[in-house]
Structure formats: C-alpha cells, structure tokens
Amino acid sequence: MILPSSGVESEYDRKSELEAFDASKSGVKGLVDGGLTKIPLMFIHPHYNPDAKSGSAVSQFRVPLIDLDGVNDNATLRAKIIDQVREACENWGFLQVVNHGIPASVLEEMLDGIRGFHEQDTQMKKEFYTRDFKEKVSFVSNFDLFQATAATWKDSLSWAVAPNPPHPKELPAVCRDIVMEYSKQVKRLGYTLFEVLSEALGLDVNHLKDMECAEMMFHAGHYYPPCPEPELTLGARRHTDSGFLTVLLQDQVGGLQVLHQNQWIDLVPMPGALVINVGDSLQVITNDRFKSIEHRVLVNSESSRVSVASAFGTTLFPSSKLYSPIKELLSQENPPKYKEATLQTHVAYLRGKRV
C-alpha cells in the first residue's frame, strides 16, 4: 500500500513505497485513476520552492525562435540560420524551430498517439512495463525511481530506433504507425541540424555526423498526469541532457522551464514548433562553446501534458569510446577544458560541477 503524504515521517518506509509503486506497473497515471487527493511521500521534492518557480512573467528573456525555411535550398537564408543557431547555442543552449520540414499533421498525430498509449487501459500498458532498458521498447515510470531522492510526476514510453530499430510489431499497436513515421522524420531533421551545427562551429558540414553524433537515436514519449498537489512535486527535476542534441515535441499545456541567467524562464509552446537543446556531450566536444543548460518541467492540477523527447548520441551508455574537444576548435587562446575520457565520465564531471 502506498502511504499518503500525510503519513507520519517516523513510520515512513520509502523502500516499500517505491517497491509497491513499481510492482503496480500502473505508473503515476494509475495513482490518478485511483482518485488520490494527496500525493505519496516519494514524490515530494523538499527543496522545490513554487513561489520562486519562474522569472519569465516579468522577464524580457525569451528562448530564441528560428525559422528553418530555406535552410537546404537557399544559401543566403542558410547563412542567416547558421548565425542564429550559433548565437542560440552559445547563449541559451535552447531554441525553438519552425518550418523544420515535419508536417503539423504528423506532430499532432504523434502527440495523440503517445497520449493514446498512456490513457489506454492499464492492462494494455503493463505488457510493456520493464526496468530492463536493454529492451527496445519499454514503459516505465521514473527511469531512476530507486536512485533519485524524489520521484517525478511522469510516465514514459521509450524506444530506440538507431542503430538497431525495433520490429514494428514490438511497438504498441495504439501508436505504432505514427511512431515509425515520426521517428523517420526526426532522424532526417537531426541530420540537417548537425550539418548546421557543424557549420556554426566553422567546421566541414559533415564533421559532427562523421563523429557519429547522430549514430544513436532514443525517443521517450512522456505523460504528466494532472497532479492534486503540484506545488509539492515536479514533472522533471532540474537536469541537463547527456547526449549531443535533443529534439522535443511538446503539446500546448506548457510547463517546460529553462534556467537562463539564474532565472527560470517558461518555454512557451508554439503550434508547429520543435524545441532543440544542446546536451552535455556536445558541450564537451565544443569545449564549452555550445552550452548544455539545466531545465525542468512543472506539473499542474488541471490537465495532463504530453511530450516526446528524441535524443541523439553515439551509443547508449556505458561506452568505452573516448572523447575530447574537437581539435579544430582549439588554440593557444582556447586550450582544451576536458581531457580525453568516455562520455559518461564527462557527463558525471559536468553534473558534479552543477550540484
């Protein structure tokens, strides 16, 4: 039995609560369906201060919005886009893009497909529930449930499509076709983005692709149910992404915030737009020129939120491959800030600095 948040602290058995929640295979959505009015203790973030959650209401800051129209067929527009992407990656680590080549109908169908998976009968979802992340397709609540100090208000359907995609029959029937189509289109967009990023760094157009920065692509379709006590928990705690680049599709509910100049800025959803952000691995190989920035997701009591994160990397962690800053970016004035090491070592180092 999962204890309510009003339980007595001295009697609280966190391990049992976690194990019971995981064993239910129902996720956070299962808790909400059960009609709870107070969240379990395992979800409470003691250091989360909702009164200081955002500076965007009075801030002049806005995450850069970039129009990709013409990026592949107009040299003048491409040069302008490259400059805009460079500035956004150096100063924000985040941007939104429109006219990216993925039809609005595909974006909407993808959001509907992920929502359809998470809102279907629990028994249908349970067959995909696993913490064995070697599985090509998995449904789980909180990837780090047993390691994190507090759980987040989120369930996730995950699948890797490169380099070894799942067989279509391994994907949930409710979203199978759109998952395959969306994955294909995001992969194509990712290649374009890595070309633009390479040129933004003054490198050959294929430099980052040749480094296998887009060799692996991992997707996670997140579902954030309505929360009866949103002031006590988060949909995603403050974090950075470990890969090279993330492409995020989000619905119009909102909740994503970016830490910019020590303020939490709302990344306001825009119809048809995709959010792009730099990951820790790209920060390392660019010698801190492009910034991997902390972000988080707030939840609300009124409506659920759906998003799809597509992460690009060289391989799933752990890997023995060694990385260091790209030598073409280094000089006497800009010496390497990182020694040669595995990406998981680099990521652990960066996150240790941010604590």
Automatic annotation (TrEMBL):
Residues 213-316 form the Fe2OG dioxygenase domain. GO terms for molecular function: dioxygenase activity; metal ion binding. Its cofactor is Fe cation. Pfam families: 2OG-FeII_Oxy, DIOX_N. Keywords: Iron, Metal-binding, Oxidoreductase. Belongs to the iron/ascorbate-dependent oxidoreductase family. This is Fe2OG dioxygenase domain-containing protein.
